[in-house]
Amino acid sequence: MPELSHGRRMLVLAICCMSLLIVSLDNTVLNVALPSLQREFDASTSGLQWTIDAYTLVLASLLMLAGSTADRIGRRRVFMTGLVVFTLGSVLCSLAPDLNSLIVFRMVQAVGGSMLNPVAMSIITNTFTDRRERARAIGVWGAVVGISMAAGPLVGGLLVESVGWRSIFWINLPVGLAALLLTWRFIPESRAPKARRPDPVGQVLVIVLFGSLTYAIIEAPHASFPVLAPFALVALAALVALLRYEPRRPEPLIDLRFFRSAPFSGATVIAVSAFAALGGFLFLSTLYLQNVRGLSAWDAGLWMLPMAVPTFLCAPLSGRLVGSRGPRLPLLIAGGAMTVSGFLFALFEAETSNVTLFIGYVLFGIGFGFVNAPITNTAVSGMPVAQAGVASAVASTSRQLGQALGVAVIGAVLAAGVGSAPYASAFVAAARPGWWILAVCGLVVLVVGLLTSGRWAHRTAERTAERLETAEIRQEAGAHA
Predict the structure, then answer these.
(1) Is 1 part of any domain?
(2) What is the rounded distance in angstroms from the CA atom of residue 118 to the CA atom of residue 75?
(3) Comparing 62-76, 128-142, 355-369, 441-455, which segment has the lowest mean pLDDT?
(4) Which residues contact 405 (CB under 8 A, 6 or more apart)?
(5) From the record, what ranges are coiled-coil (predicted)?
(6) d(C-alpha 480, C-alpha 477), whole Å
(7) Do 175 and 212 share a structural domain?
(8) In the listed set 248, 267, 287, which residue is the last one of a domain according to the structure?
(9) Selected residue with higher pLDDT from 192 and 342
């Protein structure tokens, strides 16, 4: 791709951020609408979990395929296709006649969404070649997540209260169409120097693994062991098959050699943990504020601001710190803040007091604001540029998988704790194990961030990059021979 002017690079960044905005906004807006969906469709806790996880699971399953396909046939082409499918899926969601239809249409949305974020990150990585400039761009990218968190609950609350939950999907239409036109006009086409071949077997194994594992977790409180055991066994078999099959392929869907880099492996674990905490945090908070405290969707959205605003403010700061000092400090701040927030709820029932609820939300917002930029930067910085699409797709997959598992696990724990007791009176006690899980997720971010950001970790990243580049040179030599 030819070198672009500074103004053109900024425009490319803005267009890519528009895609992240509608995908991120869609999740935060939907969380505020969950109690409305529960009332209209008489949905169970597991039904609410599936409205979120059907989207995140399909997204996680297809992100790596989208990244490698974009590297092969053209990033702009795949990005534009994703915008069309995502916008169409949003229209279908707004017309859903029942909960099952909504879940199916959310999966259509996810097919389009899988072509947006990892491809957009690949476009950004190839547009911003300077390390510090790239880190700042990724910081802006992370700030958009904060914007969606700040705007999502408020916009969602306002729309749910004034028009109804269906209107939350309408906001994707103007943004999606504008991004489509701007992409067609201003983003140049780019491809990886060497096209990667499809890996249909690996793709099927990923879908089976993610789907069966999540189903077993979500349905655990309601189904018997003989019903769940086959799904757990299928998930285990798919994982074993994936680990045995992928290393034998010259161009696998998941290049397991990436995980020889300690920073890359650490970024993957941190992404799963941080976004599991986010998914569980939003799920518990939304249900508590509206179903236990009895707040309206708008008031619940206002209560989410103490978490959303720090995320928005801290994300660009984290990007600058990553660019100037590396990922360690942002990761330590992120892990520390998220851990303290989780302990505050688990030990002191922070949600029962306005002061402690506010402090817990602020701490979580700070932690999540600092975590996104080092995840993305670490995932792509040590890899060859030709592998940018696949590397960023693995990082994005880890985020979505983490969020899906967070909603699945926390929702299952909550459903098991509430049982047949009155929902409002049993909620706080039933949610306590969930808050402990979120505290552990924060602790994982802290410990893994510390272990995978030192000199030893950097040396493993350098060796991994050298091996990947050497392997690519040998493959090209063999192809020309």
Answers:
(1) no
(2) 10
(3) 128-142
(4) 213, 214, 217, 272, 276, 279
(5) none
(6) 5
(7) no
(8) 248
(9) 342
